[in-house]
Design a protein that fits this description.
The complex is a heterotrimer.
Chain A: H1 13-33, H2 37-58, H3 64-87, H4 89-96, H5 98-104, H6 109-139, H7 148-173, H8 179-194, H9 206-212, H10 216-228, H11 240-272
Chain B: H1 4-20, H2 25-51, H3 58-90, H4 94-99, H5 104-111, H6 113-133, H7 145-170, H8 180-188, H9 206-211, H10 213-230, H11 241-272
Helix pairs in contact in B: 1-5, 2-3, 2-6, 3-5, 3-6, 3-7, 3-8, 3-10, 7-10, 7-11, 10-11
Chain C: E1 7-17, E2 28-35, E3 38-39, E4 44-48, H1 55-62, E5 70-75, E6 78-79, H2 84-87, E7 91-95, H3 107-116, H4 122-136, H5 151-163, E8 169-173, H6 181-197, E9 202-207, H7 210-216, E10 219-224, E11 227-232, H8 234-239, E12 245-251, E13 268-276, E14 279-286, H9 291-301, E15 306-312, H10 316-324, H11 328-336
Parallel strand pairs in C: 4-9, 4-10, 7-8, 8-9
Antiparallel strand pairs in C: 1-2, 1-3, 1-5, 5-6, 10-11, 12-14, 12-15, 13-14
The chains are: A mainly alpha, B mainly alpha, C alpha/beta.
């Protein structure tokens, strides 16, 4: 007698998990098959980070700032992943014809986006770690870790909020065409500025820094710097605990926002016929 | 074969059509202002935090102008190498370009013209912002325009050669690395003396900077614009402007030859391995 | 609407707004107009029409990718607008010339990924993938990266993707596009067998190849400019022309379209004219056989040599010409002008 095959029920938690794993798979496996990532995703960004280190040395900055730059440079990898491999990714998927197949399948688009996010995060974390390790060794960065678990918790919460924001942007970009690429391009430098990748966000002044705190990386990096660098707390914007609360609120807000916007944008895209059009 | 100039012209027209019609003029204006100003602001904040806002210092003008003109490096190099990814993966027309009687390097160079033009807008906006808001030590009445235009023109040719080299490499890599132009430009930031004098680099790294044509190009632009201020930095003070021009011409020729060789090799490899029409997005 | 049908539409319309464009150009395009079709379970239903007729638009609506402007559509008993979540587990789609999937993944990996979106356990998915790849002749390429496949092989992979979820309703939008003659024949055979073996499973196939529709489909709907012109079994549609006589003439080469006013001969319903190397092919649909005499006399009066003459059975092409007034080729040519 043939064994009964148990197909996961549509829109169930089991199918959600299957979808997440399946969509993460091309990111994790496919990325590693392109071996040049070590050069393009680690070595070149490391050179760029080094340039900012030398700017600080040229203007006589304290060595703590070198550590800031190394960490910021590593975290840029996550922002680039959000911008190019999450937010505007649905545009590429539409171009290739995958988007229509994703929408047609009996799963949640949140699962598809989460799969993309996790797959991207795995690959990006490897790259960020490589940059931090190499940068710390080359530039002799000193760390004063307050608590590993606090750091890990802060990092994970930052990622949840950041990738939640990425998922939200993905749904907005669902409605765009070629503008998607340019808007992603536009968002690069302003976020570099307001996230404080290369300097403490406190330097922007209270109100600007407060406004910038809506970007998960701004407040997340500020908290992480306070937890790992000697004297980090004096250069921090807000107390770490307050920043963690902000991150928690942002996480919930962005994930719920992503869910709401995704449904809304999908309905709008179906009404206007934008799921399969190619307006390049 | 279609001539070099007609190929370049058609490609420049095409590049402009692609770059200029993605949005309405207002959003395009926002994009053109926000991007370069935000980029410059990063360095301004870094500088301001450490020096307490000493924008009258010659070092600030050195950093600011170097960063402003470095915009060309990203836009020209990225503009040319991006055309390979765009045509191959998105429009899927690269194979048709290859089988047509055009000279591919000139086609790619032409595709970079639009980015050069938008890069020029960004450079002008960045410098204007510096003059208006940051007390940039630049007196337009004191500018050596002949040196400036000469250096700029030579620099664009040099950057186009580098762009072609990158375009060759791009023929052999996956869509994942579509920001290769910007990534390489960011990496070269370290060795070009754009945002800090080369003396700051460790001894063993400085020769790399001296071998880069970008170093001499930026120095010539700074001398043309802020003559006395530029010469306050010792790195290239032993070279006269004429000598710098000579070095830049020489390096442009060397890198030009290197670009042609690399492009030809990559082109050959790409045809051998059937990569001209590959689609690799994941 | 009663929901015993696999697919059902009632007064379905779709209008596209045209963005940009010149001032004197139309601002909207009617892709579908008052479309009413009913497809029973177990049917292999064909949608036949030229490029731009509205076939793909109809498929997009039925697969919940596009909302209708007005009217109603039901798939597997559920409304496409309000019950899309009920429809999606029950359908799948394969388009011609598809480039879906990821180039860096192998054939098996790409197909496995899509199987997971439908909740198929990995072991079962891999079993189905292997079985179907063997059937379409792609079994030896299971571990090849999909970027290394030719267009035809890639399309075979896409076809496997559509069938492996065992959908209740399968939409095939020009599935043999890009396939060579042999591969297209294999795929058509596979589709026919698949439907025969699954009496509760339905296939809607769009094509602009008459022979394909004629060979495969239980029923065919002919669509042009967004309207359904006829819908019946191919034999019944052809039967509409049974009273007419269809003749194919080969004459010495003549240059203009209607030099001898064939259209004005009483009893000539329609004719087409095609220049070939060394001769001109004329095809006539006549009210009755006797009209042929007048046609031949007309040729003789202009000293045009008749090389050959044959009578043939009506085809779906002829049905199309009868309904539209022009051949599908002429309609497509006009559309591209």
């Amino acid at each position: 007698m043939k064994e009964a095959i148990e197909i996961s029920r549509p829109y169930s938690a089991k199918l959600f998990l299957q979808t997440v794993i399946a969509r993460a798979y091309p990111r994790v496996v496919g990325a590693q098959r392109e071996r040049s990532w070590m050069f393009f995703d680690v070595f070149l960004p490391f050179l760029s980070v080094s340039a900012y280190v030398f700017v600080y040395r040229a203007i006589g900055a304290p060595e703590t700032y070198v550590g800031f730059v190394v960490m910021g440079g590593a975290m840029i990898a996550f922002w680039m992943n959000i911008l190019w491999s999450m937010s505007s990714q649905l545009y590429w998927e539409k171009e290739q014809g995958n988007l229509a197949l994703y929408i047609m399948a009996p799963n949640s688009m949140m699962a598809i986006l989460l799969g993309m996010a996790l797959g991207g995060m795995v690959a990006t974390t490897l790259r960020a770690l490589a940059i931090i390790l190499i940068g710390s060794l080359v530039f002799n960065v000193h760390f004063a870790l307050v608590s590993f678990w606090a750091l890990l918790g802060t990092f994970l919460l930052t990622m949840v909020a950041l990738y939640g924001m990425g998922m939200m942007f993905s749904s907005l970009f669902l409605m765009l065409n070629r503008e998607a690429w340019h808007l992603a391009n536009l968002a690069q430098e302003p976020i570099f500025l307001f996230s404080g990748f290369y300097f403490p966000i406190k330097s922007l002044g209270f109100w600007v820094a407060a406004g910038a705190s809506i970007i998960p990386l701004s407040v997340g990096m500020d908290a992480m710097r306070q937890l790992v660098f000697p004297g980090g707390s004096t250069l921090g914007f807000l107390d770490v605990n307050i920043e963690l609360v902000i991150l928690a609120i942002l996480s919930v807000g962005f994930v719920l926002g992503a869910r709401y916007l995704l449904e809304k944008m999908e309905r709008l895209a179906i009404r206007e016929g934008r799921l399969t059009e190619s307006r390049r | 074969m279609l001539g070099r100039l007609p190929t370049f012209r058609i490609a420049a027209w095409l590049g402009w059509q692609i770059e200029s019609n993605w949005t309405d003029p207002f959003l395009f204006a926002v994009y053109s202002i926000v991007k370069p100003v935000a980029g410059a602001a990063i360095l301004v904040v870094m500088y301001g935090v450490i020096t307490g806002g000493d924008f009258a210092s010659p070092l600030f003008s050195y950093i600011y102008l170097g960063n402003a003109f470095y915009i060309y490096v990203g836009s020209v190099m990225a503009g040319i190498s991006w055309a390979v990814i765009d045509d191959r993966e998105h429009y899927k027309t690269l194979k048709y370009i290859y089988i047509s009687p055009v000279r591919v390097p000139f086609y790619l160079a032409g595709r970079g013209v639009a980015r050069f033009l938008t890069g020029t807008i960004s450079v002008l906006i960045t410098i204007s912002a510096g003059l208006l808001f940051l007390n940039l030590q630049l007196d337009l009445g004191e500018v050596d325009w002949l040196m400036f235009i000469g250096a700029l023109a030579l620099g664009v040719v040099m950057l186009a050669n580098l762009g072609l080299l990158l375009a060759g490499v791009t023929l052999m890599i996956a869509h994942h690395f579509f920001l290769i132009g910007e990534a390489v430009a960011s990496a070269l930031y370290l060795f070009s003396g754009a945002i800090f004098p080369l003396d700051v680099l460790p001894d063993w790294l400085r020769p790399v900077g001296f071998a880069m044509p970008l170093t001499y190009w930026l120095e010539l632009l700074r001398r043309a614009l802020i003559g006395n201020v530029a010469e306050a930095f010792p790195t290239l003070s032993n070279f006269s402007s004429t000598q710098l021009f000579g070095i830049l011409v020489g390096l442009t020729v060397i890198f030009g030859l290197l670009s042609i060789l690399v492009f030809r090799w990559c082109d050959h490899q790409a045809r051998e391995r059937g990569l001209i029409d590959m689609v690799t997005n994941y | 609407m009663p929901n015993d049908y696999a697919i059902q539409t009632q007064g379905l319309n779709r209008i596209y707004k045209i963005r940009g464009g010149k001032k004197d150009e139309p601002k909207q395009l009617t892709a579908l107009k008052d479309v009413n079709i009913q497809v029973s379970k177990g049917e292999l239903f064909g949608l036949l029409g030229p490029n731009g007729a509205g076939k793909t638009t109809l498929i997009k609506i039925l697969t919940t990718l596009l909302a209708p402007s007005s009217g109603r559509a039901m798939v597997a008993g559920f409304d496409v607008t309000t019950q899309a979540n009920e429809i999606r587990p029950r359908i799948n789609m394969v388009s011609g010339g598809e480039s879906s999937g990821y180039g860096l993944l192998t054939v098996r990996e790409n197909l496995w990924m899509f199987s997971q979106f439908y909740g198929i356990p990995s072991k079962e998915a891999n079993r189905r993938i292997k079985e179907l790849l063997d059937v379409v002749g792609l079994g030896d390429r299971i571990n090849t990266k999909s970027s290394e496949l030719s267009t035809g092989l890639r399309q075979k992979m896409n076809i496997v993707r559509g069938f492996m979820t065992n959908p209740e309703v399968l939409f095939l939008d020009e599935p043999t596009l890009g396939l060579d003659v042999g591969a297209a024949r294999d795929v058509r055979g596979f589709i026919q067998n698949w439907v025969k073996e699954r009496t509760e499973h339905t296939v809607l196939l769009t094509t602009h190849h008459m022979a394909e529709a004629d060979e495969l489909c239980d029923r065919v709907a002919i669509i042009n400019q967004g309207r359904i012109l006829a819908c019946d079994r191919p034999s019944s549609l052809k039967h509409l022309l049974q009273r007419e006589a269809i003749f194919r003439l080969r004459v010495d080469s003549i240059n203009s379209t209607d030099p001898f006013d064939f259209g004005k001969i009483n009893g000539v319903r329609h004719f087409t004219h095609q220049a070939q190397e060394g001769y001109t092919a004329l095809e006539f649909i006549l009210e009755e056989e006797d009209v042929l005499t007048a046609v031949v006399n007309q040729l003789a009066s202009h000293s045009i040599h008749l090389q050959s003459l044959e009578k043939r059975e009506p085809s779906l092409e002829d049905v199309f010409i009868q309904l539209v007034g022009r051949s599908m080729e002429e309609v497509e040519r006009e559309g591209s002008d």
